[in-house]
Amino acid sequence: MSPFKSIKGRALGKLIEGFKSSDIGKGFGSGSGGGSGGGSGGNSVSEDANGNKYHVFTTPGDFTNNGLSKVDILVVGGGGAGSSYYGAGGGAGGLVLWEDAPMVEVSTLTIVVGEGGGNTPTGTVNGIDGTDTTVTGWNSVYNPNILTAKGGGGGSPDSQSPGGSGGGRGAVPGSGTGGSATQPTVNSQFTPLGSFNQYGHKGGDYPPSSTGYAPAGGGGAGGAGGNGFQSPGGGAGGHGREIPGFPGADIGVLTPLVPRMGPNGLHYAGGGASSPYDNGAPGGAGYGGGGDGSSPLSNELKRGVNHLGGGGGGRHPSTQGSWETNGGDGIVIIKYSI
Question: Disulfide: which of 66, 207, 220, 304 matches 328 by Cβ 3.0-4.6 Å?
Answer without folding.
Answer: 304
